[in-house]
Structure formats: C-alpha cells, structure tokens
Automatic annotation (TrEMBL):
InterPro entries: Glyas_Bleomycin-R_OHBP_Dase (IPR029068), VOC_core (IPR037523)
Organism placement in taxonomy: Bacteria, Thermotogati, Deinococcota, Deinococci, Deinococcales
Domain VOC: 6-121
Top-rank lineage group of the source organism: Bacteria
The name this protein goes by in its record: Glyoxalase
Amino acid sequence: MTLITGLDHIQIEAPAGCEDAARTFFGGFLGLPELQKPPVLAARGGVWFALPDGRQLHIGVTKDFVAREKGHPALRCTDLDTFTRQATAFGVPVQTDTELAPLRRVFLTDPWGNRLEVVERPT
C-alpha cells in the first residue's frame, strides 16, 4: 500500500525581505501567479506561487539563510529555447547541461543563490 498520493508543494528558503525579489523572479520572469498566504502565515513573510499543475511553490523566510547549492526543485517547461530566451531577457544566466541527453535541461539560481533546474518536457 502506498501512503503518499503525490507532491503538494515545495518550499524554497530565502532571507528576510525577499518578497519583492520573489515577485520579480517567480512572478515576473517565470510567470507564476501569486497566491494569498493564510493570514496566520503571512506575518512570517515570504510569498506563495501557483504552478500550472495545481501544485504550489512557497518562498519561505529563514533566519540565518544559506543558499542551497545542491538540493533543488526541478521545474518543467515545454520549450527550453523559449525559456532560455526569457532568462536572457530578464538577465538571468542559465547553465546548459547535456549530461542526461537527450533530456534537455538547464540550471540557474534564484535571486538568493538557490539552485533551480528547468527540464524540457514537451506535451
């Protein structure tokens, strides 16, 4: 019997005062809609975003923040070339990786240095 039925959300840690940068990066660059946090959690800071598949990405404030250089979420896109052009337009450097070819993927960092992966999965 499997007890887990799926993934609900992921949380990325960020320093205090991260909200504006989170909105620019995850909302502006990645185009994710912001979700309203429950009032009891809003006082802690951070921002929540909706993913197209119904899951969520939470940016949570962490005291004594340290960027995650290894552990990371892997997000999906349908066209990695378009994604890379968007990253360039926003001044976000991407590192192409061919280690899992023919799978296409890139790595980048969020505004606080956390590692992110974007994988191309055509529909």
